[in-house]
Amino acid sequence: MNIILGTIVGLGIFLFGMHQLEQGLQSLGNNRIKKILSRSTEKPIFSVASGVTITAIVQSSSMVSLMVLAFASAGMIPLFNAVGVILGANLGTTFSGWIVTTIGFKMDLAAIALPLFGLSSIVYLFSERRPEWRSGAQAVIGLGLLIFGLSEMKDAVETLPLLFDLSSLGNMPIVVYLLVGMLMTAMIQSSSAMTLITLTALHSGIVDLPAAAALVVGADIGTTSTTILGSLRGSRIMKQLALAHVVYNLVVDVFAFLVLLPLLPRAMNFVGITDPLYGIVMFQSSFNFIGLFLFVPFLKQFSDWLSKRFGKDEEEYISLYLHNTSTEVTDAGLITLEKEVRHLLEMGMTLNMQSFHFSPLQIGTPEQVQSLQKVAKKYEGFNEGYVRLKRLETLIRHYSIRLESVSLNVKQIERISLLLECARDNVFALKSLKDIQSDLDLFRQGDSESSLLFNQEISNSQEEILRRQLSFLQSDMLDEQRLNQFHLLNDMISQQHQALNEDIAESLRLFPADKNKELDVSAAQVTTMLNVSREILHANQGVQHALKLYFKVTEKVGVNFS
Questions:
Q1: Largest alpha-carbon pair distance within the chain?
Q2: Which whole-number Å values give the CA distances from 486 to 261, 359, 462, 478, 539, in the listed order?
Q3: Do 539 and 352 contact (CB within 8 A), yes or no?
Q4: CA-to-CA distance for 495 and 207, rounded, in angstroms?
Q5: Residues 6+ apart with CB under 8 A from 83
Q6: Pick from 295, 200, 315: which is nearest to 253 by CA?
Q7: Which residues does 556 contact at the CB level (< 8 Å), separation at least 6?
Q8: Residue ranges covered by each domain of the chain
């Protein structure tokens, strides 16, 4: 009973220490890791190397996989490069075995753990105003707890061979150890912890070398359970990456179990390793390295095969980015949110064109309107498009709520608030146009000369406004000259509204005193014209304000934008 309790206590301390180590390293190096992931995945070999390096540093393949998923979903790296990082993370996570073997079983743990824990705790408590020091201290606290937990587990199981006849374990088929490693890893959700248990059991003589090797292979299969569970209700790309993890691990682990495991004793003799602990970690690193050697040359073909798996999510028909992206990595989530708000602005622009019966090429060049034409193909008619626009705004709002549930700084919260306001303004603008669709249709049909002239006037002005708004939306940067043009467009919108209202007022002055005398325009039509003019003004002003907010958030303004 004491052995079981001691093992559980030691494992609990070890896992908690590992969690603190991961949290500290994540806080300490999160921004650097994000930059590495986003910049060093241009080629498959670089993406694999990034996965190995980053996972070796932070000792958490789960954290790296989560970041990769977020960046891939945000469109920052393609699927095949994301797969490369995940495969590299498999090799990177084996470094924990080398660390545990070197520190945990070759040094006096008690002499290391408590000083690490005590000194780093003091730094942690007195460094509230120094976030980097505090994060570093948290990581060292985690390392101290990890080593202490390992010591407890070692002490607990060292007497186990004296209490049980281990010969019965030796008679068990090797495949049983494979299944045990797989199931235990799936239960504790940590291949590193399972590697620790295996090394401890091997060090204490509970299992022999082949059994320990089988446990490690089983742990490598079992670690895929985390990605499987995470993708059950996830997006399409989450399922694709989970499938990549499962297929890769199964192929590599079956090869390791059937081919490499029988050759392990000879391999140890060949390289001159006599310590079975180092033999196991060498075996674990070797089959993961061989797996990369087998898969990397065919990574593009593997990713193409993955891209054809699983159907589209229901929300994928509405959003372009949100359905793919986790909110756990804030920077990637914010980039995704910006891209989706831009998609909403483009959808609003296509609806704006449709409400006045403009073709895309009336508003811009083929290159400028290419994205708008793709958006327009997803719905039929203004009403269906408006429903999709509102649904997209709802999805953006829900995504923002999930994004705000993680730890954000003041600047990030402000960015989300501005993006939500941008989306809201754009939807309000289209609501104004929706309310006058039937009136625009009547003026377009033209039962009088005044109706036709009114329709022609608003069409001419709106065509020019939309052309300029599209140009601003697709600008890489608003310098002082372009910013002046943006402000001039605001003035132009107000002036055209005023001129239109003056023309309508002139129609009112033409009404004769003799009620029996007929005019080309009725009082009801004049009222409708005034209403249409007002709603068009609100729509244009709403789009302008939405663009202004979008420029601020995406930092496309090179000068002061008040």
A1: 118
A2: 69, 23, 15, 9, 16
A3: yes
A4: 86
A5: 47, 241, 244, 299, 302, 303, 306
A6: 295
A7: 475, 476, 477, 478, 550
A8: 2-307, 322-554
Gap between the Cα atoms of 96 and 220, Å rounded? 13
Mean pLDDT, residues 413-423: 92
Task: Decide if 372 contacts 350 (C-beta within 8 A).
Answer: yes
Phi/psi of residue 541, each to 5°?
-65, -35
pLDDT attached to residue 13: 80
Residue 368's identity, in one-letter code, is Q
Cβ atoms within 10 Å of 484's Cβ, excluding its own: 12
For every residue of 410-451, DSSP letters joined together read: HHHHHHHHHHHHHHHHHHHHHHHHHTTHHHHHHHHH-SSHHH
Identify the DSSP state of 164.
S
pLDDT value, residue 229:
62
Query: In CATH, what number does 322-554 get?
Result: 1.20.58.220
- The predicted-structure confidence for 27-81, as pLDDT tens digits, reads as follows 655 555 555 555 655 666 777 887 887 777 656 665 566 566 656 655 556 677 7
Rounded to whole angstroms, the Cα distance separating 97 from 99 reads 5
Token pair for residue 331? 């920077």
Strand, helix or coil at 68?
helix
Q: Which amino acid is at 277?
A: L
CA proximity to 448, closest of 383, 524, 558: 524
pTM (two decimals): 0.52
At CA 538, angle to CA 464 and CA 352, rounded to 5?
Answer: 50
- Rounded to 5 degrees, what angle do the CA atoms 10, 86, 98 make? 40
Q: What is residue 102's DSSP assignment?
A: I
Rounded Cα distance between 342 and 543, Å, is: 12
Residues 6+ apart with CB under 8 A from 329: 34, 66, 67, 70, 71
With the C-alpha atoms ordered 281, 282, 283, 284, is the resulting torsion angle positive or negative? positive
pLDDT digits 0-9 by tens, 533-557:
999 999 999 999 999 999 888 765 5
